[in-house]
Design goal:
single chain, 4 helices
Length: 103
């Protein structure tokens, strides 16, 4: 049990260090697409939380699993919304082109 805890702590520390190194080397202009993509990947976390909730046996485990599913779903949906808004910034408006033709 103690060894599993140390392994989990090691994985957490390794993930935190790797995330910090990746984010610090990305130019500032690309932070929004990177964060949008990472939110999209959070959908995998949503699947993990649903699996964990499925294996929960006590009411406390079920409550924690339910909260985890809600938070993961919110983050995944937020990732989609941010991605859509970001992609709208790169599309050209056809209404502006039509107005320009009439004038």
């Amino acid at each position: 049990m103690i060894i599993e805890g140390f392994i989990a702590l090691y994985i957490f520390m390794l993930a935190a260090f790797t995330g910090y190194e990746i984010i610090s080397k990305v130019p500032v202009i690309l932070h929004t697409p990177l964060m949008s993509g990472s939110n999209f990947v959070h959908g995998i976390v949503l699947v993990g939380t649903m699996v964990a909730l499925g294996h929960a046996q006590t009411p406390l485990e079920q409550a924690i699993g339910f909260v985890a599913v809600i938070l993961a779903a919110g983050n995944a949906v937020g990732g989609y919304v941010v991605t859509e808004r970001m992609l709208e910034m790169f599309t050209t408006s056809k209404k502006d082109d039509k107005k320009g033709d009439k004038a």
